[in-house]
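Session log. Operator J.P. requested a structure for one protein chain; no other inputs attached. Running the standard single-chain path with token output.
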Amino acid sequence: MKSFHSFITEARKNPKQNPKQAPYYALEKYNKPGYYATFITDPKNFETNTKKEKDDERSDSPVVLLNTKSKYMTPWGIYTYSLLDMYKEYPPPSESGEQVFRVPFAGEKPWIALIQKTPECKTLNVAAYKTSDLNSDLPKLRHDIVDLMKKKHGKQFDSVLARSYFSAIEKYARKNATTRRVASQLWNVTRMSGFLVTKSWDELSELFEKTEEESYPVIKKYVPKPTLWATILRRAPGKQFYYDLVEDPGLGVVHENEPRQAVFFSRKGYKVVKIIPNKDVEYNKKHSSTKFAKREGELETHIRRGKNISEIPREKYPDLVRILTKKDKDKKTLLDKKKMTQKLPPIVEKEILDKDLDYYDQMIDVDHKSLMLSLARNISPKEVRDFLINHSEIKFSQEDLNNLVQRRPQNLSAILHLNPSSKTIIDVIKDEPINVHMLTNYDIPIESKKQYKIPAEVQEAFPAIFDKVFTGETKSKGSKTLQSLRDDRAIRMLKNRILDLVHTNRLSAKVSNALVSVLDKNNQLSDAEKIQLKNK
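Structure written below.
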């Protein structure tokens, strides 16, 4: 394979064979599937391998040479545009009548490298990726992550626990993918898996002993390292999960701000065809907006001038959401700076509230259904509770409250101040008995009189529900391979929660005695605990 430096040297030595055409014409014969372009600063700096790395290089070397430095919190790789997209989406005519490429990003860089996908390139096309593909990929990804955890955590490593930690991260990542597309779920699982390698074993053990309500806010703060994320995705000896190329034809899975792009992660997936000067560079510096950016600019002007929102066609709603929530250099969005004076379409309201419930105050006449869907989707019960407390003017029916916990049982703790029905509470605890912990606010002393007063009907349902856990009739939810481990953990945590309720006198004497009998009958009490309960 020729080096990048060789390509540019030959171009300089043979000006007749390599005329300086505008990229639109120079690349025209490659406007077909399998060809990609990346905009670069300096061809001489592409070959970043040391001599030793070149000597040691395998044919399937995962080393990536182009555009590896990312400031957008995306994995290191070669970020490209397919030639088909460049000719279809980004070539508005210039003032001279000559065609130029006006791509969303990097069009001001002075060189363009043309890359061809190799026959052996393993490709993930996010539009074609199916649930069956995800079900095939996840066990392979788990194998690789567990292997990385074993290398990182050494003697503390436990393979059974590592697999259970991966399952917890997988569940979180799939629930909170940026879109509901299957490929978006996989992308987020690869992003969040690095959490298990970055954190210490003690941190992981402590975190995953907690409930989802307590652990999710910690996981949510994780910022992936671009190098580690690329390691998880790319081809390397011994790995079961990898892709050489991820191709996004406009769905915004790789990055919502640049929907159309293709990313190469492994050298085996591509070969360099040639490098040409970017004659469009001066034009793009003066006209930084692209067809994509121009469309957004027109929308932003439409909003700033207070024009009728209903005139915006439905196909532009994703652009509208992006404009209203895109942060500027001061970390402020258009919604932060300007409160809406017109009602937004319900689907736009929902997408905005999914990003941040605080935007509710910047919109008017928010559709109740849109709000409900966003509240149910929010991963943090604390955020939901704070929102509900700060917006007491919003009225919620018992059906609304029931829907909130049906979609996300963790929201039970967020709605207690709204007095949900006993049936709603019992249904949540029947579904997963450990959810009884949601009836306690652990931010204040558990014996405090400010704690939620559990309705008598709910208390009376406890003994029968909990007895089924200790007898094994009720199983914890999840994969069968880890069933025993999860059941043991659920029993241990449930016992502690029951004792908390008994010792803090939050239950009637009758229910407390019944629960102690359930624990004793199922051999869950130590001698010390029996003495403590007897002296109570």
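Operator note: Residues 292-371 form one domain.
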